[in-house]
Design goal:
Blueprint (H helix, E strand, L loop, with lengths): L6 E10 L2 E11 L4 E5 L6 H8 L7 E6 L2 E2 L5 H5 L2 E5 L10 H11 L4 H15 L15 H13 L5 E5 L7 H17 L3 E5 L3 H7 L2 E4 L7 E4 H8 L4 H8 L6
Parallel strand pairs: 3-8, 3-9, 6-7, 7-8
Antiparallel strand pairs: 1-2, 1-4, 4-5, 9-10
Helix pairs in contact: 3-5, 4-5, 5-6
Length: 249
């Protein structure tokens, strides 16, 4: 029997004022997999992501998360099942790395032993230096801030992880290392992950499935294997333009 999708969009529409952003979207995100959403700026990638955790509500249609329609009866409880990381990490500037990572767990009453065990496991998995835990965000490098943000998003053992271009602001070498660490985390804790990115190469590296927004005819869904076969020896960005119908003739 097929597993129910972690997230399902059923004829979802969303706009800002008179400007439509998403029109009649039908999508399903498989449980336990990494799915990337790519497309041009303004095509609705981040809007789609925020619909997944109830930060936004659709103008029409239904969003289902874990089989239940949104809005959830208890939005706070839902969001604590969903990890969320964004481009600039959005760390609290007055809290140390450790305090940022463990804040919600401490509010929920985790024991000191449980906090320490989870913190050390994630710190090692994402390769965050131990001394970074005692620093404030402005004392951390961009890569360290993103690692702290990723630890925070994963700390409560979420059933879903939403990533809104979290690696866009770091240098290529750091990004490559964080990619490797994210895949290592996913191998140990295969949480349903939705990644928004403008980088097709990043999408092909991390995701098992890629959703292309903004293409003629509506969203396209492709497996990584199918996209790599179509890419051949070409570069990833040219492949994206071709799929969106924007490649040079």
């Amino acid at each position: 029997m097929a597993t129910a999708p972690a997230i399902a969009f059923e004829r979802v529409c969303k706009g800002w004022g008179a400007q439509p952003v998403l029109r009649d979207i039908n999508l399903a995100f498989a449980s336990g997999r990494i799915t990337a959403i790519v497309g041009r700026s303004g095509c609705g990638k981040s809007t789609l992501l925020r619909l997944c955790n109830g930060l936004l509500t659709p103008d029409a249609g239904t969003v289902r998360v874990f089989g239940e329609p949104l809005p959830a009866p208890d939005p706070v409880a839902l969001r604590r099942r969903i990890g969320y990381a964004v481009q600039q990490a959005a760390l609290f500037p007055h809290l140390t790395g450790e305090e940022n990572i463990t804040l919600v767990a401490r509010l929920e009453g985790w024991s000191a032993a449980a906090l320490a065990e989870r913190l050390e496991k994630l710190r090692v998995l994402v390769d965050l230096p131990a001394d970074a835990l005692a620093r404030l965000p402005f004392e951390l490098s961009g890569g360290q801030q993103q690692r702290v943000g990723l630890c925070r998003a994963l700390f409560l053992h979420p059933a879903m992880l939403l990533l809104d271009e979290p690696f866009a602001a770091v240098d290529p070498l750091t990004r490559r290392d964080i990619h490797r660490r994210l895949l290592a985390v996913h191998a140990q804790e295969p949480v349903t992950t939705v990644l928004v990115t403008h980088d097709m190469a990043e999408a092909l590296h991390l995701a098992e499935e890629v959703v292309i927004l903004g293409a003629a005819g509506g969203p396209q869904v492709h497996s990584r294997e199918a996209l790599r076969a179509r890419q051949g020896d070409g570069d990833a960005e040219s492949l994206l333009l071709t799929l969106m119908g924007e490649a040079d003739p």
